Amino acid sequence: MLSLRDSLFIAALLNAAAAPLAFAAPTPGDAPVLLAQATPSDDDDEDEDDAPAAATPASDEPTSASDAPAASPASPAAEGSAPTSSAQAQQLVSGAPLFNPNVKVHVIEKKPYTDKGTFEIAIYPAAVQINGKFTQTIGSFGSLIYHLQENFALQITGGYNWWNVESGFNGELVEKYRVEAQAATSLLWTWAALGGVEVTPFNGKFVLFDGILGRFSFIINGGLGAGGTRHQLKPQTTRADGVVSEATYGDTGVKFMGSIGAGFKVQLGEHVAIRLEVRDVVYTARMETVNGCSLTDLTAMDAAVIGGREPNTVTGLSTGCLSDSFSGVREEDGYRHSSDAKLAKNLVQTQSSDVLNNVGLYAGVSFIF
Amino acid sequence: MTRKTLLMLGCVVLTSSSAAFAAEEEDEGELVEKIVVRNRLFSVANRFELGVNAGFGLLSRMTDTYVLNASVAYNILEWLALEVRGGWALGGLTSVARAIQDDYSASGTASDASDAWQMTGHGVLGLRFQPIYGKLNLFGEGSLHFQFYLWVGGGVTGLRKESLVACAGGSSSCTQWLAGGRQGASPFTFDGDTSGTFNKISPLGSLALGFRFLFGREADHSFKLEARSWSFLDSYLVGITKNQVSEANPTGGGTEAPGVGLTNVMTIDLGYAFIF
CB burial class (10 A; 0-12, 13-18, 19+) of residue B16? Predict the structure, then answer.
C-alpha cells in the first residue's frame, strides 16, 4: 500500500509531466511564433519590445542589451537576469519561449479567416465619379469575386450609372461662351460589364482609439469588358412659360472598356467586409452613330424633317437605325423628337475621338461565403 | 486514507493542474494577441511636428492649383492634434479658360465664369483626428505603421482673379497680347483693384482625409498622403460691357452675380513632418 507521501509524489510527477504537454498542445487561438534574438536595433515591430515582457508574469525588469544573446532557454544570463524561474524560461508556448524575458519574439498572427476557395459578392450602392469635368456619373455596381488563392481572385463586375449627365461646368461653357467639350469628350457612360482579377498584396491591422481592433487588406484590381454610352443631344431648358424641357439623349453604342482600381477591404467578421475603392474606367470614345443611325441616316432624316416629314417615314435607312426615336412628340412638354435628328447629325458630322477616364469612388459592402 | 482515496486525490490534482495550465495557456495567447495589436511602436502624444506639404489640384476646370504649405502641429493626444498650416498657392488658367480668352472681342456684354478665383497666400488652423493606428505588412516581417486621419479647420486665403472676358486697354492691345504668346502682364487682371472684384480675402474652410506613415526609431519622421478640399467664397461679374473695361473701370459696368456659393478646390497633398 502506498503511503500518503508516495501518492502525493506520484501526483506531483504526473502533474509536472503533464504541464509541458498542456502548454505545447495547440489550440485554435494559438499564434505561430517566430523567434529572433533581441537586439537593441531590431525594433521594427510594435509587439517586439513589449509582448514577451507583458506576457511574462515576472518580467517587469527591463531587458538589458547585455542579456540579448540569451536566446537559449538554458542560458545563464536568462536565469540570472530575470526573476523568471529557470523552469519557466525553458517552457515553450507553441515553440516560443514566451516566459524567457531575454528572447525577443516576433508574433506572426494567423489570418483569422481564409480567403482561398471562397466567393465574395460585393455591392457598391454608390459609385461616384470624382473627376467629372464635362460629365458626372453616379451608379450602382456589383462584383462577384472568387478567391483562387489567398492573394489572388477572379472578378466579374457589372453595374449601371443611373445618374449620367453633362456637368454644370459644360452647361456654363455653352450658356456663357457658346463653347463646349467636343462630342467624344463629353460622352456619357451608362453601364458596364467587366471581367478581371483582384490581387491582395498587403494585409494590415488597425486599432481604433486603442479599443476596437480591425483587419484590412489593400486590394488592386483590373479588368476588361464593354459598356454602354450615350450623349446629350438637347440640354435641359426652361421655356418662357416656365415649363422645364428635359434634356434628350442619344445612344452612342457599346464601347470597349478597361478598368484599374485600388482600395481597402476592412473585414468585419468572417462573412462581411467593407470595401472602399478608387477605380478608373477607361474607354475609347468615338462618335459614329446615334441610336444606331449613321451620318448618312441622320442626314436623310434631317432632310425629311426640313421637308415636313417625320424621320421614321424615311426609307432605306441602315439596319439598326432606330428612326422611331427621332419621331413623335414628348407628352410632358411637347418637345418634338425630330429636332434631335439635326442635333445628332451635328454630333456625328464633327469627327471626334478621345480616350476617357472615369475615376470613381466605389463604396460598398461585401459578403463572403 | 486508503489507496483508492489517494489515487483519486492524485487524479484530481492532476486534472485540476492540467486544466489550470490550459487556462493559463489560453490567457497567454489572448494576452499576446492584445498586446501585439494594442501596443504602439510609435507614440506621438505630447509631441510637436514641423512639416512641409505640396499638393496639386485634382480636378481643374477653370484654374490649375498647386499648393505649397508649411505646418506646425502639436499632438495633444495620440488621436488628436492641433495644426497650423500656411503657405502659397500657385496656379493659372486652364486650357479651357485660355481658349475662352483667345476668342476675346471687345464688343457686347459678357459674364465671367464661376469658380475662376485662384488661391494665393493662405493659412488655416485645424484639428487632426487620428484615431486609427495601423500596421501594413509589406514584405516578410517588414511593416509600415500609419495613422489615418480626418482634418477639419478654417482660416483665410487671398484670392486673385484673371477675367476671361474683361480686358483693359482696348481691343487691339488685348488681341495683341493674346496673339503675342501672352508675354508680360495680363490685361485680363487688375492687381490694383481694391473693390474685391479681382482681388479679395476670403474665409477658407479645409477638410482632409489622409494617411501618415511613421518612420524612425521613435516616429521622428512621417510622410503624409492626403486628399484635401479648400473651400472659399466665389463671386463673379455678369453683364460686363466689354468696351467699357479699363484700369479705372475694371468691372465694365458689370454687377456681382447673385446667389453664388462656394468654390471647392480638391488637392492631393504629399507631405513630410519631423516629429519631436
Answer: exposed
Distance CA B130, CA B219 (A): 15
CATH code of the domain occupying A119-287+351-368: 2.40.160.20
Residues in chain B closer than 8 A to A132 (CB atoms): 59
- Judged by CB atoms within 8 Å, which residues 120-139 of A form the interface with B? 130-133
Report which DSSP code applies to A202.
E
Nearest-neighbour CA in chain A from B114: distance (Å): 8
Q: Is the four-CA dihedral B164, B166, B172, B176 of positive or negative sign?
A: negative
* In chain A, domain spans: 4-71, 119-287+351-368
B214-268 pLDDT, tens digit each: 888 777 899 999 999 999 999 898 888 888 888 788 888 888 888 888 999 999 9
Say if the Cβ atoms of A209 and B26 lie within 8 Å: no
Instruction: Please report the beta strands in B169-261, taking only residues with DSSP state E, as ranges in sequence order.
Output: 199-215, 221-233, 237-238, 240-241, 255-256
How many helices (DSSP H) and strands (DSSP E) are in chain B?
3, 12
Rounded Cα–Cα distance for residues B251 and B254 (Å):
5
Tens of pLDDT, residue by residue over A229-278, are 999 998 888 888 888 888 999 999 999 999 999 999 998 888 999 999 99
CB-nearest to A46 from B132, B135, B266 is B135
Mutation for B interface: A27, A46, A359, most B CBs within 10 A = A46
Of B10, B61, B266, the CB nearest to A14: B10
User: Which residues from B are below 8 Å from A214, CB to CB?
Assistant: 134
Kindly list the residues from chain A whose CB atom is less than 8 angstroms away from the CB atom of residue B37: 205, 207, 213
Q: Which helix (H) or strand (E) holds B173?
A: helix B170-179
pLDDT tens digits for range A164-195: 998 888 888 888 888 877 777 888 999 999 99
